[in-house]
Amino acid sequence: MNEDKPVLLSGIKPTGEIHIGNYFGAIKQFVELLNDDSRQGFVFIADYHALNFIQDASEMKRLTRDLARAYIACGLDPEKVVLFKQSDVSAHTELAWIFDTITTMPYLMRAHAFKDAEAKNKEIVVGTFNYPMLMAADILLYDASVVPVGQDQKQHIEYARDTAEKFNRIFGETFRLPEPHILSDVAVVPGTDGRKMSKSYGNTIPLFASREQLADCVMGIVTDSGNDRPENVYAIHRLIKTEEELAPVYEEHKGKYKALKEALIDDLDAFIAPMRDRFESLTNDTEIDEILEKGAQVARSHSEHKMDTVRRAIGVR
Ligand code: AMP
Ligand code: TRP
Q1: Does residue 10 line the site of ligand 2, with CB under 6 A?
Q2: What pLDDT is recorded for position 160?
Q3: What confidence tens digit (pLDDT) does each residue in 159-209 have?
Q4: Measured from the CA of 197, which atom of ligand 1 is nearest?
Q5: Is the shortest distance between the CB of 140 and ligand 2 below 6 Å?
Q6: Closest ligand 2 atom, residue 148 Cα
Q7: CA-based diameter of the chain, in Å?
Q8: Which residue minimizes the CA distance to atom 10 of ligand 1?
Q9: Ligand 2 center to residue 261 CA distance, Å?
Q10: Tens-digit pLDDT profile for residues 104-152
Q11: Does the CB atom of residue 147 touch ligand 2 within 6 A?
């Protein structure tokens, strides 16, 4: 661990198939930012966050390994970036508990995720309610300064900042305040129905989809008749091509939705193919597990160091 390099950290929950919203909203940014050697990167699999949703051991194992494969297929180099799973580093849950003790219920009740769940009249588990504190621990343990996430995670970064400030105020300067990093032009990737692409809406385009699957998804994109340009098709097209590249295509096929969708299928397939090939070649589970264990060792050594300071600050050591 190089103490001088700013730390970039991010995580994704292993709760389902990775889709192009995750790629353009989050993973692509980690990969680009981490190619810059001036930063130290920590990227993890938020399996304890996912436990709120995935309560089946074999499913958890499969989704976790698939997320590790996805990170690597998208260009993360585990030799350069610390790639690990959250549950391998017990400091995350320990620090989350410490944060729980300085956080009030009304403050957590203002979280969007909690309010959404409440609005749906769901019986909310304590893990969902506390979610922002575990996420604050994920970030603050590594003194992360840059946290690339999608727009929907911005509030969680604010919770991490507030929590760091509150802890520092009570126990003395301990944590560094993180900044979110959100790419504004792809902040929200639309799904095939025009709403935000999300597993829960069933409107996703899987990142490692075969050409046939891609064709099915794209042909299912909702189009508003009467417009020369099908906006939901164009919005996805814009993720992989520039306006200048698309202008002649959309001019030539003005109003012809089927032809425009076919052009999108070709472009998406070409864009995805190298990542899909890499994802499919990573079939050795032992190798994936070893990569994650190696990352966990580095993450544990860094976080233990931080926890030592924290335990002293609160007076348990
Ligand atoms: P999730 O799958 O909801 O856990 O999200 C994993 C990461 O992908 C987070 O950083 C999200 O902000 C990002 N993400 C998920 N869906 C989208 C979307 N439709 N547009 C942009 N970013 C997204
Ligand atoms: N809450 C994030 C999501 O749903 C995942 C996550 C957990 C995360 N811990 C994190 C992201 C720490 C960035 C930093 O996408």
Answers
A1: yes
A2: 98
A3: 999 999 999 999 999 999 999 888 777 778 999 999 999 988 999 999 999
A4: 19
A5: no
A6: 13
A7: 71
A8: 149
A9: 33
A10: 999 999 999 899 989 997 889 999 999 999 999 999 999 999 998 878 8
A11: yes
The CATH superfamily assigned to 199-279 is Tyrosyl-Transfer RNA Synthetase (1.10.240.10)
Does the beta carbon of 156 sit less than 6 angstroms from any atom of ligand 2? yes
Where does the pLDDT of residue 154 fall: very low under 50, low under 70, confident under 90, or very high at 90 and above?
very high
Q: Is any ligand 2 atom within 6 A of the Cβ of residue 26?
A: no
- Residue 166: CB atoms within 10 A of its CB come to 16
Lowest average pLDDT, out of 43-52, 83-92, 186-195, 215-224, goes to 186-195
Spell out the long-range contacts of 94-98 with Cβ–Cβ below 8 A and sequence spacing 24 or more: 94/137, 94/307, 95/137, 95/140, 95/141, 95/307, 95/310, 96/130, 96/133, 96/134, 96/136, 96/137, 98/167, 98/310, 98/314
Please name the amino acid found at residue 206.
Answer: P
* Residue predicted with more confidence, 32 or 260: 260
Nearest to 131 by CA among 67, 144, 152: 152
Q: Structural domain boundaries of the chain?
A: 7-187+285-314, 199-279
- Between the CA of 22 and the centroid of ligand 1 the distance, in Å, is 4
Task: Report the helix count and the strand count for the chain, using DSSP H and E.
Answer: 14, 5
Please say if the pLDDT value at position 224 is more than 90.
Answer: no
CATH 3.40.50.620 fits 7-187+285-314, yes or no: yes
Tens digit of pLDDT for each residue in 83-109? 999 999 999 999 999 999 999 999 999
Average the pLDDT over 33-61 and give the result: 94
Residue to substitute in 135, 152, 182, 236 for testing ligand 1 pocket (most ligand atoms within 8 angstroms of CB): 152
Q: Which helix (H) or strand (E) holds 105?
A: helix 105-109
CA of residue 211 to ligand 2 center, whole Å: 30
- Structure tokens that stand for 192 in this block: 């095939």
Q: Residue 3's pLDDT is what?
A: 63
Matching CATH topology for 7-187+285-314 and 199-279?
no
